[in-house]
Amino acid sequence: MNQITMTLQADHLILEALKEDISSEDVSTNAVMKEAVRGQVDLICKEDGVIAGLDVFQRVFQLLDGETEAEFYCKDGDEVKKGQLMGRVMGDIRILLSGERVALNYLQRMSGIATYTRSVAKLLEGTGTKLLDTRKTTPNMRIFEKYAVRVGGGYNHRYNLSDGVLLKDNHIGAAGGVARAVRMAKEYAPFVRKIEIEVENLDMVREAVEAGADIIMLDNMSPEEMREAARIIDGRAQTECSGNVTKENIAGLAEIGVDYISSGALTHSAPILDISMKNLHAV
User: How many degrees, rounded to 5, is the angle at CA 259 between CA 247 and CA 176?
Assistant: First the structure.
């Protein structure tokens, strides 16, 4: 993440995470460290994976003390190995102790998402189909989790509800049908916004095409239905496949020829990457 993004979009979230962990003081640290002592600690990877979130990790300590320094021996997007020394953090030992858990929480979560995304994205290599995330993110973690998806080789769907038009089943129900929902969106949304609509059967596909939707999301359809849907659409709209996408079935879905495959699992089901801070000592 660049400094502007960090300052405007991430700093207040990181501070809230720190306030959650330190409501008044760090009793354990203050008990054993009566005064400032400069020290350093190693950042070690405990399993193979893809690293993401080093700037966020470092920022946790800098928000506690601007004089904290970090040096890294890898960068976001690098594949790291079990036992690898990824960097060191130097500063007031009290800061290193108090910021450790929050910093690792961000780094482990983001790296886990990047690792899982990389493993799924590799299954789409050479297909022309792009892997998308969704809004199924942890509350107040979206900026971090969607960044991690990009690091892992995926692409971001809309960031939030203000970012684009996506008419789902309940929007269609509220509007009174596919054609009416698309027409209302065209009348309301700025002309620079593409209009995407979710469909669940071939009749809805036909209606969406005729209504002039820009993107048609094929939701929870069988492979046979999606092939027929692609034939009906015939390039008149971009296509997205969604619903129950897994590592086991994604390659077969790409063979259908859709433009995009979206997967909530990238953010809601990726396990963390095990990372630790070890060998803290005074310098």
Answer: 100
Handedness of CA 120, 121, 127, 133 (dihedral sign): positive
Are 34 and 94 within 8 A, CB to CB?
no
DSSP 221: -
- 25 annotated ligand-binding residue: no
Does the annotation mark 236 as catalytic? no
**What's the half-sphere exposure (Cβ side, CA atoms, 13 Å) at 14?**
27
Residue 261 has a CB neighbour count (10 Å cut-off) of 25
| pTM tops 0.85 | yes
Identify the H or E element spanning 71: strand 69-72
In whole angstroms, give the CA distance from residue 74 to residue 203. 51
**Annotated binding residue 153:** no
Q: Please, what is the end-to-end C-alpha distance for the chain in angstroms?
A: 30
Q: Is 168 a catalytic residue?
A: yes
Residue-wise pLDDT tens digits, 157-206: 999 999 999 999 999 999 999 999 999 999 999 888 899 999 999 999 99
